[in-house]
Amino acid sequence: MSTRRTLRGDGWFAFVRDRQWILKFRVAKRWPQHRIPRDIQVESHVRRYVRTFLQAEAAERRQITSRSESLDDDSTGLRSGMTFRAFAKMWTDGTLADLFPDHIKRKRSSRSDRARLDKHILPYIGDRPITDFTGESGVALADAVRHKLPLELGKDSRRHVSQILHRLLTLAEYPARILAANPLPAKWMPHGAPEKAKSYLYPSEDAQLMSCVRVPLLNRLFYGFLSREGMRATEARELRILDVDLSNGLVNLDVNKTDEPRSWALSPGVREGLGRYLERFRPHVRPEELVFVDGAGRRPPGANLARALRRDLHAAKVTRPQLFAETEERKRIRGHDLRATFVTVHLAGGKTETWVSDRTGHKSSVMIARYRRMARSHQELNLGDLTPLVDAIPELAGATVGRPAAGGSGRHLRLVSATPSAPEENPGNRSPDRGTSK
């Protein structure tokens, strides 16, 4: 077949290149190109294919236009003239997730994102229309926000602010279709801070913390659970009684950060410890109630978990400098490092990455591999395993929780041996947070 063969029509033409028909067709001022399947060679068949293809393309463009017009309607809440502030609010309050559930997940970090927006972004560009963020002028507006960030702001914080701005402009492009394209180039995002050294609790330090009655019981129970089960603190705080099957020693975590339900067998010490805590301090607990709540209705530390943990370690006379040092090379111990304690100790004890990820929810072995070096050091130093939770906390030790009868729910557990006399001050009734200032 001659490579000079050409077919023409209204707004299109086709030619042969390397024994394949190539179609070029007009869309506004552009001429996109389309490869016609190689098995279509006869000219009449080519013309028939082109007609069908162009009809489908026109129908798709009409659908896109109709969608864009509907988004300009006030009924959707999205308008091409809306301000950056209004669009950002729709993102943080979940309105965008409701409008586009297939493309946008409801935010779990909306509180911190709103704080960064209010402090670093909205004062400068909040009243600008979204449509101002096009081309070089859009890049200039974004650069102006980044240049106004305080110099003392850390690299990671600067990157977080930039990520919020980039994400909002990406959503304005699609699925909102307010912008034709996100104007920010691929390399616009700044680098974060280099990885810092992090710490974890040695088993001896964990035992020291668990046995310190000066620290509220609920705090110690919460810290000990995180170190022995590997759950995220945000997940553990929302754990309900009905999620924990103490009869069979199983925890079911249906709602979590990765949206992938998981379940695993509790360690015997945690199973026994939780049962004794509920029996002794919350005997009339209901299935829908949270696990980590004391008799006065107080919850364990949340947003101030890192500060509370360091304060409670000081109270327990844990003094290893690496836990409290904050330098350019090292981070102070944080609440998240209780997960690091779990991973490190159990990898050192010979548990597999699969066993660990079943409990932590890590989706990549790369994340777990980061703890390998600490685990090898832990093993070489022969630091040992964590003390079972039921033995580590004095208020829970020394009694046996009765097992429910076969087929029972296990919700109300019975102490079958003599219960020691209650201490003068009930640690479960102290405030676990002791202040929420950050």
Structure overview:
The chain has three domains: 6-72, no CATH class; 75-188, DNA polymerase, domain 1 (Orthogonal Bundle), CATH 1.10.150; 203-429, hpI Integrase, Chain A (Orthogonal Bundle). It has helices spanning 43-72, 84-92, 95-99, 110-125, 135-147, 155-173, 203-210, 217-229, 233-237, 268-281, 305-315, 337-348, 353-360, 365-369, 372-380, 389-392, and strands at residues 6-9, 12-17, 20-25, 33-35, 244-245, 250-253, 262-265, 401-402, 414-415. It is 41% helix and 8% strand. It starts with 5 loop residues before the first strand and ends in a 23-residue tail after the last strand. By secondary structure, it is an alpha+beta fold. The longest helix has 30 residues, at 43-72. The model is unreliable at 71-76 and 399-438 (pLDDT under 50). The protein has a four-stranded antiparallel β-sheet, covered by helices on one side. It contains 16 helices and nine strands. The relative contact order is 0.09.
How is the secondary structure organized here?
Layout: E1 6-9, E2 12-17, E3 20-25, E4 33-35, H1 43-72, H2 84-92, H3 95-99, H4 110-125, H5 135-147, H6 155-173, H7 203-210, H8 217-229, H9 233-237, E5 244-245, E6 250-253, E7 262-265, H10 268-281, H11 305-315, H12 337-348, H13 353-360, H14 365-369, H15 372-380, H16 389-392, E8 401-402, E9 414-415
Antiparallel strand pairs: 1-2, 2-3, 3-4, 5-6, 6-7, 8-9
Helix pairs in contact: 2-4, 4-5, 4-6, 8-12, 12-15
List keywords for this structure.
438 residues, alpha+beta, DNA polymerase, domain 1, hpI Integrase, Chain A, four-stranded antiparallel sheet, three-stranded antiparallel sheet, elongated
